[in-house]
Design brief:
Shape of chain B: globular
Largest sheet of chain B: 2 strands, antiparallel
Helix content of chain A: over 70%
Number of strands of chain B: 2
Strand order of the largest sheet of chain B: 1-2
Oligomer: heterodimer
Order of helices and strands of chain A: HHHHHHHHHHHHHH
Helix content of chain B: over 70%
Distance between the termini of chain B: 44 Å
Number of strands of chain A: 0
Radius of gyration of chain A: 21 Å
Structural class of chain B: mainly alpha
Number of helices of chain A: 14
Amino acid sequence: MSAMVEAPVAPGARSTRAARLAVRLLVPLAAVGLGLLVGAVAILLTGGSPIDAYAALIRGAVGTPSNLNATLARAVPIVVVGVGLALAFRAGALNLGGEGQMIVAAVVTAVVAAWVGDLPAPIGILVAAGAGCLAGAAWALGPALLQTRFEVPLLITTLLLNYVGALLAAWLVSYPLREVGGGVAQTPTIPDPTQLPYLAPGGRLHAGVLLLALLPLGAWWLLGRTVAGYEMRMSGLNAAFSEYGGVDGRRTLLRAMLLSGAVCGLAGALVVLGVHHRYIDGSITAPGYAWTGFTAALLAGGEPLGTLVAGLFLAGLQTGAAGMERNTDIPFQIVDVVQACIILMIAIRLTLGRWLGRRLGLT
Amino acid sequence: MDAGTILDAAILASVVRLVSPILLAALGGLLTERAGIFNVALEGLMLTGSFAAVVATSRTGDPAIGVLVAVLAAMAVALVFAIVVVDLGGDAIVAGLAINLLALGATTFLMRAILGVQGGYYDPTMPGLAAIELPFLAQVPVLGPMFDGQTILVWVALALVGVLQVLLFHHPFGIRLRAVGEDPVAAGSVGVRVRRVQYLAVLGSGALCGLAGAQLSLGIVTQFVEGMTFGRGFIALVAVMFGRAHPLGVLGASVLFGGAYAVAVRLQGQGIPSQFVNMLPYLATIVVLVVVYGRAASRRRARGALAEGPAEVEVAT
C-alpha cells in the first residue's frame, strides 16, 4: 500500500484519492449532524433551547479537566468494545453479542481478581484481565461454532446470549457471589493490587486509558499488516471469493469471533478493574457501553482508528449529556435518541455512500 | 418435582397469556418475512407499543384507547423503518437495530419527560385490559382454564392466525406479498407495486407489534418498565423462522417459546431464583435454532454427498 502512495501519481489520481477520503468522512459526519439535528428537534419539543442544551453538553464533555477525564474514562470501554466488534464486522461476522461478552467477562474478572489479590500489582491485573478476555471469547465461541457447524445465524444467537449473560450475571451476584451484608446485588470490592491505578487526581482517569491508544493501533496493524488480518478482511469482503483463493472461511470466522469476544471481554474487565472495582448488577447494561461501541464501529466502517475517534466523540456526547441534564433539566437519555438516529443514518449510508461514490466516479 | 405439578390447569392459562405477545409480534414478523424484509425491529416496535399503551391509558383511564395509541405509535415507528429500508434502500439489519435503540432511548426519555419517572411507571389506579369471563367455556375441562379470563388481545391473536392464513394463501394481497418476498424484480415485472406491498407489510408488522406491546404492559402486567420487552421481539423473530413464516407454524413456535416463559414463571413459584429460570426462553430459542438449522445443514450435506459422492451412496438411499 505504501509503495502505491510513494509512486508518482497523475494529478488526477491524487485528487481522486482526496475525493474518496472526503466521501468517506462526509457520510459519517452527515450522520452525526443529522442525529444531532433530530436531538435538537426533540429538545425543542420538550420546551428546551437546543443551543443552550448543546452548549451545556460541550461544557460537560470537555469544559473542565475533570470533565475531560470523565470523557476519556468513559471512552475506554466504548472504544475497546467497539474495536472488538469492528474486528468481527471486518471478517463478515455480525457479532451483536458485545454486551453479553462484556457482562460475562466482568463477572469472571471480579472473581479472578479476588483470587489473585496477593500477586504483585501488574501481574494480578493482567491475570484478572486475561481471565476476562477468555470469558468473553468463550461467550463468543458458542455462536461462532453454531454458525460454522450448523449455519445458525450468528447475529441472532449472539443477541439472544446477551439476555442469557445478563440474567446469569444477575443470578450470580444476587446469590453465590453476592457481597455479604450488601444491600445491592454486587460482588465484594476487588483487592487493592488488582485495581487499575489512577493517572490523574480526582479518581476517574485510570490506567486503562492507555489502551485507547494501544488497542486501535494493534487492531489496525493486525487487519492491515498481517496475513491473519488480510484473511479476515478478504473473508468479510467476499466469503466465496476468498475461499476460492485458499482462505479457510470457517477457521477465519472462528478466529475472528474468538478475538472479537476476547476484546469485548477486555472492555468488560476494564469496567471492573478501573471503574467500579467490583461487578455491580446492571453496571454494563445501564450505561449502554456495548451498543455505543457498536455505533462507533459502524460510524467508522469497521476501521479501528476511526472507531477510536467515533468512540471518543460518543463518550463525550454521553458525559456531556450528564452535564446538560444538571444545567438544563433535559433528560440525558436524549443522547440515546441521537445515537439511534446516527445508526439509522448509517443504515442509509450503506447505500448513500455507494451512490455518492458512483456519482463522483470513484467506484 | 414431577411433570404433573408443572403441567396443571393454572399453567395452561399462564401459557396462553404469555404466548400472546410473542404470537402477535411473530405474526407481524411473518408479514415482513413474507415481503422479503428481515425485521430485527420487532423488539423496538413492541417496546414502543408497551410504552404508548401505558401512557395513553394513564392519561385517559381507558385501556381501549391505550391499545389504539399503542398500535398507532408502533406504526409510526414502523413507518420510519419502512422509509429507511424500502425507500432509501438502507440495510435492514442495521436499521432494525437502530429502531430498537431508538425505541429504548425514546421511551426512557419520554418516560421522564411525560411521566416524570425513571426506571418504570406504575400507577395502581390505572386499569389494565379486562379479563373476558366466559361462563359457558369455564365448564370445559382443558379449554376452560386455558381461555377463560383472558384479555381481548389473546382472542385477537388467535383470530389473526386464521386471518393471516386466509390473507396469505387465499387473497390477492397475500399472493402479491409472497411474490414480492420470493423475487421483487419478477413481482414488479408483472405489475405488482413492490414498494407499496413492502410498506403495507412493515406497517402491518408495526400494528401487530403495537398489540403485542399493549398485551405485555396492559394484559400480562399493568405497568411499564424500561426495556420491558427484554428480547421478546428477537424470540418472536426466531418463531417466524421456526414456523417457516406460516401462520400455523408460527403459532406452534410461539406456543413453544411462550410455554418456556410459563415454565419459568412456575419454577420461580417453586423457589428457584427468577434470574436463573428466566434464561429458559432464550436457551430454548437457541436450542430450536440449532435443531432447525442443524437439520437443514445435514440435509444440505447429504445432498452434497449425493451430488459428488460415488454411485453406491445413491443406491443406499
